[in-house]
Amino acid sequence: MSRRKILREHFSNALTGWLAGVVATIVLGLLWPIIFPAIVRVEHYYGAGPGLPMIIGMVLALASPAAIIGGLVGGALSVEGGDRGRRMIAIVVAVVLSIPCSGWGYWFFTGY
Q1: Residue 86 · residue 78 · CB < 8 Å
Q2: Is residue 90 a contact partner of residue 13, using CB atoms and an 8 Å limit?
Q3: Could you give the CA distance from residue 66 to residue 48 in angstroms, rounded to a whole number?
Q4: Could you tell me the pTM of the whole model?
Q5: Residue-range domain boundaries for the chain
Q6: Tens of pLDDT, residue by residue, the chain (112 residues)
Q7: Helix crossing, 3-35 with 52-77: angle to 10°?
Q8: For the residues of 14-47, what is the DSSP string, one character each?
Q9: Which end of the chain has fewer beta carbons closer than 10 Å to its terminal beta carbon, N or C?
């Protein structure tokens, strides 16, 4: 296998993992006020502090490295199953690594 093809596969796995982590983080961010109802009124805790889109953006910056690493590791774990199997494992590992990081980031903004 050529070096260029290997780099392309690693980049593809990292991008797939990052996209899966971003989607999981945004979904958790939109469901977060339901899970932690104390944050429904952001102004109560922060005054003129960050709104929900800004909080989601900050948590995305926190969870993105974990999702990229998860995509790289997940793509390297799967030996069988071809490209589809590697992408599925990259997605699963990226979500598993990014959810704790994003959960901690959202929890940080609950006011507890």
Answers
A1: yes
A2: yes
A3: 30
A4: 0.83
A5: 11-35+52-108
A6: 688 888 898 899 999 999 999 999 999 888 877 776 655 555 555 566 677 788 889 999 999 999 999 999 998 887 777 888 889 999 999 999 999 999 888 888 766 5
A7: 140
A8: HHHHHHHHHHHHHHHHHHHHHHSGGGSSHHHHHS
A9: N
